[in-house]
Amino acid sequence: MSSWIDIVEGKARIIHRELLAARELAVELGKDPELISTPYFELLARLYRDEFPYASLADHADLVARFTGPGVMTHEPPISLVTGAFSKLRTQIQKIAKSIAGLSEEKRVRWPADLDPYLSGLAYGSLVVGMRVPRPDDVGAQGQLVLEGVTDGLYEAVREAVCSLPLIPRLIKDEAVSEDVYSLFPDPAVRDTVMVAAQKLAPTPRSKAITELFLSCPGQSQETPAALTRESGKILQRSLDQASGQRFRGTDSFEGVVREIDLDALRFEIRGARYQRGIRCIYDEKHKGQAREILDCTVRVSGSYEAAADEQPRLVAVESIEILKRPAKQMDLLGQ
Fold first, then answer.
1. Residues with Cβ < 8 Å from 159, sequence gap 6 or more?
2. Upper half-sphere CA count for residue 259 (Cβ side, 13 Å)
3. Strand, helix or coil for residue 79
4. Which residues have CB under 8 Å from 299's CB, separation 6+?
5. What are phi and psi of 258, to 5 degrees?
6. Which residues are bridge partners to 232 per DSSP?
7. What is the pLDDT of residues 269-294, one digit of tens each?
8. What is the pTM of this model?
9. 303 or 103: whose pLDDT is higher?
């Protein structure tokens, strides 16, 4: 498969051949070849100015984000705006990675909490950013593996989840999220993880400088990306707040250690000996105070749940949380 750079260079070669042929014809006709050259030079300039930066970015990115709006329609957007967009994107990719790691079959592996996705490139016009999920063989500044212990399988699961983000805005239709989301994301835990990230990435009602966000994954679907907007962010939030009771398999209690927690999204993951993979839990405002205390605790959660195709519970709408055992370091701090 040709790279994006190969495609752009192929276009440039065609323009150069046409330019050469046009100049030769001008000479044969006794015309000034410089006069005929100007349109071709303009095509080449536009190609290298507009397409080459994106192609270079796309060849190395897992996810490309294009931010549009009054604040970024310039070659000199405010630094605070650029860093804010970077931070938002980085945070959600980190949260996807940590969540997928916590939900995986690899019980002793955690995705490093402070590990940044890699910036693969930057282009302007609108603000276009390329991000890459760190690979298991990537080496840090000190010569160490940045993902020591992370298998290729877990890396691919994280990368697949990140690359599924562009699907979410395409599923927003008629003021709701399409039912197709359930077939495209058969694992309820992964579906919720990716939808939460998309909702957090959508421009907020307070955002005046950035009004739309287009997400794409180079090398995948060639469909025109759909925009995440202020309105789609509201629609996603409504969908996340209104869990589909028709999808619940029943009500039960689940015990496990709280591996990851997202206080902003009101989510945490538990892993227990009974389950091959982790379980993602959704809690509401009444549990916010308790949720701050449960990281690394062994807990029992009760509530309605969704299961994956293998019948394993994967997503729980929490009705109650009971702390069964605190980690040793917490016991020491409490003097117990």
1. 62, 133
2. 28
3. helix
4. 255, 256, 257, 258, 270, 321, 322, 323, 324
5. -75, 110
6. none
7. 998 878 778 899 999 999 999 999 99
8. 0.79
9. 303
Which tokens is 8 given? Answer: 């752009």
Residue environment code for 115-142, b if the CB has 16+ CB neighbours within 10 A, otherwise e: bebbbbbebbebbbbbbbbbbbeeeeee
Which residue type, as a one-letter code, is found at position 99? S
Q: Tokens 């250690």 identify what position?
A: 257
HSE-CB at 119 with a 13 A cutoff on CA atoms is: 12
Give CA–CA dist 144/122, Å, rounded. 27
User: What separation in angstroms does the CA of 72 have from each of 12, 41, 50, 76, 78?
Assistant: 28, 27, 15, 8, 8
- Distance (Å, rounded) from C-alpha 158 to C-alpha 161? 5
Q: How far apart are CA 58 and CA 178, in angstroms?
A: 29
Question: CA torsion, points 79, 84, 85, 89, in degrees to nearest 10?
Answer: 140
C-alpha separations of 68 from 27, 51, 208, 221 in Å: 46, 17, 11, 21
Distance CA 183, CA 173 (A): 16
CA 257 to chain centre: 26
CATH homologous superfamily of 246-333 equals Bacterial OB-fold (2.40.50.200)
175's torsion region: left (phi>0), alpha (psi -120 to 50) or beta?
Answer: left
**Nearest residue to 312 via CA among 24, 90, 99, 105:** 105
Q: SS3 letters for 213-277?
A: EEEECCCCCCCCCCEEEHHHHHHHHHHHHCCCHHHCCEEEEEEEEEEEEECCCCEEEEECCCCCC
- What value does the mean pLDDT of the chain take? 83
Beta bridge partners of 233: none
Structure confidence at residue 156 as a pLDDT band (50, 70, 90)? confident
